[in-house]
Write a structure and sequence with these properties.
single chain; about 75% helix; about 400 residues; mainly alpha; 3 domains
Length: about 400
């Protein structure tokens, strides 16, 4: 409006100058401009009113939309609460069904306590055989040291275990890891009994299933039956739980005795190592298989790798460390006797074998002494070491005899 007024005043002044207008003309012009100003004021007032009306309409529309959204949201909340109540009802029914199932199970156990007894026998079997047959050498002496009561309890538990084969609380029809460990324990028990009865009967070399059965005496066939039973339990143990790496290791120990032409014991050890790479035991047994077939270089590598691991199976076993060094001494002594070696290479093998022998014979051990004397005899594994380092060999023998302090 101010702009319109100013512009009108300027035009009026120009008009007065240019035309020499009279006062009446000026008044008429002024009235005309006044009318224009009034009309412009009315227009502005109308626009302001329309803007206010539009703001009111927007506010009302927003309020209505907000109320609709709140009603829609409340509907969803009500629907969610209904579903929650429905879920709570289903959960209550499920809990009630579980309580009924537990009550039914308790009633069955009261009437037929075989299920509870089988589980208890299974646990006891694992404990009995696990403690009775520790992982030491020779297993034959361990078996012979078992009391008659403990042996009979193992036989009794074996029958319960046979019954448990047909009972399952799991979807896959097995009792899982516990059953596998129990079967492995029984396999170890019968393998130890096999060693013991072979020694008592004076059967050397040990009979094995690779022999034609027609050539076996009745006594050999009876003893072989023990090894067959150990093999059966070993196979059942890995079938029950293929992830039980100890069961694969134990199975190899039986297979090595079997000497079947179509069975390679190394395969079981490879499966054991695939399941538990940081163990020493499987590599130690691998070296025995390799040494037995004359692959002394591979045996030496397996034993060196075993020394680089910390656990015998699942924990350290310092009592088995001398076995690793003793067997590597034998492997290196055999390598020293190999063909196409320079004198330097031969002496290096013999020196390292003598060093391993010192660590492999740390204290009194009657069983180890017997093996040591056989290996030091003519044609034995340690014969080259005896010739090169007689004093080291003599000291090792004295420690095994208990005539020198242990190291």
């Amino acid at each position: 409006m101010a702009m319109v007024g100013i512009q009108s005043w300027q035009e009026m002044r120009r008009s007065l100058k240019d035309q020499g207008s009279t006062i009446a003309d000026i008044k008429a012009e002024f009235d005309e401009y006044k009318d224009r100003t009034d009309n412009l004021q009315k227009l502005v007032a109308a626009l302001v009113g329309l803007s206010s009306l539009y703001a009111i309409v927007l506010a009302i529309t927003g309020y209505v939309n907000g109320q609709n959204y709140l009603r829609e949201l409340q509907g969803k909340v009500d629907e969610a609460e209904e579903k929650l109540e429905e879920a709570k009802g289903k959960l209550d029914k499920t809990n009630a069904a579980l309580l009924d199932a537990e009550k039914t199970g308790e009633d069955l156990q009261k009437k037929f306590n075989a299920f509870t007894q089988v589980n208890e026998n299974l646990r006891q079997l694992i404990e009995r055989v696990g403690h009775a047959m520790p992982d030491i050498e020779p297993v034959a002496l361990t078996y012979e040291g078992l009391s008659s009561d403990l042996r009979e309890s193992i036989y009794f538990s074996e029958k319960s275990l046979a019954f448990a084969q047909f009972i399952s609380f799991e979807a896959d029809g097995t009792l899982g890891e516990g059953m596998s460990r129990a079967l492995m324990a029984l396999g170890r028990f019968y393998r130890a009994r096999f060693h013991s009865e072979c020694a008592c009967a004076g059967l050397k070399p040990l009979p094995h299933l690779g022999l034609p059965r027609a050539s076996c005496t009745p006594e050999q066939q009876r003893v072989l039956g023990l090894l067959e039973r150990a093999w059966m339990y070993g196979n059942m143990a890995v079938e029950r739980d293929p992830t039980n790496f100890s069961a694969w290791t134990d199975l190899e120990m039986t297979q090595f005795l079997l000497k079947l032409p179509d069975v390679d014991p190394e395969e079981a050890l490879k499966k054991s190592l695939a399941l538990r790479e940081d163990q020493q035991k499987a590599r130690y047994l691998m070296s025995i298989v390799q040494h037995s077939r004359g692959d002394y270089a591979a045996a030496e590598v397996s034993l060196t790798q075993a020394m680089g691991r910390k656990f015998w199976e699942t924990e350290e076993n310092l009592d088995r460390q001398p076995d690793l060094y003793y067997n590597r001494a034998c492997a290196r002594a055999k390598l020293a006797a190999g063909k196409n070696l320079t004198q330097t290479q031969r002496l290096a093998f013999l020196y390292s074998a003598a060093a391993d022998l010192t660590k492999g014979c740390p204290k009194k051990n009657d069983h180890a002494l017997k093996i040591f004397d056989e290996d030091c005899a003519a044609g034995g594994d340690l014969e080259p070491v005896v010739a090169q380092y007689p004093k080291v060999v003599a000291i090792a023998r004295e420690r095994l005899e208990g005539k020198r302090p242990s190291i």
